[in-house]
């Protein structure tokens, strides 16, 4: 290192002296041992990888590459994958905080700058931590539909997911020897002797790094106690939110914004007719569904649709934000409607809503859904005509699709050549 940079490093170290000393003291705390970092890190990696896989799946369903056939069974597939995505994302909050708490003293290890390799390793950790914190934070904000950030949630959440997974791969690669050493309790190095429960202060022989230490308030915090606390916190945040999609946990759902069974016709509403600005057009006596094919336009009034054969489908709404619920829909099969106009869909249908703005005003429905016998232009929900907030006079409902694709307040359906 040149003398200029080493002088700079010296000066930095002197400036950080108090922080470095505090961190050094903290590093000898058993809950900040490599073993704890590995135990918490493993759980966090599982949560992140679960989020990554289910998140990519969700993006594929919303923006399908044309060549990929999309699954329509089991009908609850997206309910499970997206429910898991949000549950794992929520679980990662306490795990991420616990992991940062466990390893933060290492960020202040000396030398602060060090060799190029060490600097690169620390930079990758900085990227991982920064991206993970932002990723989890905007995910939570999205669940409560609080779009305080000035960018597209979907695109940034997806891009950051790649950054997190990429820097996680580097991090795991760099730390692999340490991870292997501390993978099992038996196989670890120096701190294998940490007593599970507080056993007292270090004796004169001085296994000081191993023995539980008193914290500032004079209490003992053992590693097992710390991990138990993390487990309880994680279980608590999951239990109090997963009820938005898991029926058994519904009574415990205090934090998730949507509640199973609560809403018009016993089903939550994501965006109301007022919010979408469709109240007048949706209730207009002039309303008719336009079906456009390469050979012309057909118009179906509500009475025309009601006069066609009606089919019942029991299908869930599964919102990307993590809530989901099954409902009973009744209406005209999409295949029956297409047959009526003599159209065979070879490309995605273009489904337009009465809504004039917003990302979900127009959606595409690939042929595998359009041809599915369960897919409906629904007119009724749970035994009565669709509530205005659920898409009156007509909406689409198809199996195994993200809620955002279940377009409400239909205006037209276009079959392209
Ligand atoms: N036209 C239109 N359709 C829409 C939406 C919308 O904002 N506009 N929201 C979608 C979303 S995100 C979900 S989860 C479902 C929710 O359906 P529900 O409000 O009837 O429960 O509707 C979908 N259909
Ligand atoms: Mo949604």
UniProtKB/TrEMBL annotation:
One of its GO terms (molecular function) is oxidoreductase activity. InterPro entries: Mopterin_OxRdtase_euk, OxRdtase_Mopterin-bd_dom, OxRdtase_Mopterin-bd_sf, TAT_signal_bac_arc. The keyword Transmembrane helix applies. The chain crosses the membrane at residues 39-62, 82-104, 125-147, 159-178. Residues 284-416 form the Oxidoreductase molybdopterin-binding domain. The keyword Membrane applies. Pfam families: Oxidored_molyb. Keywords: Membrane, Transmembrane, Transmembrane helix. Gene3D superfamilies: Oxidoreductase, molybdopterin-binding domain. It comes from the Bacteria. SUPFAM superfamilies: Oxidoreductase molybdopterin-binding domain. NCBIfam families: TAT_signal_seq (TIGR01409). This is DMSO/TMAO reductase YedYZ molybdopterin-dependent catalytic subunit. It comes from Agromyces terreus.
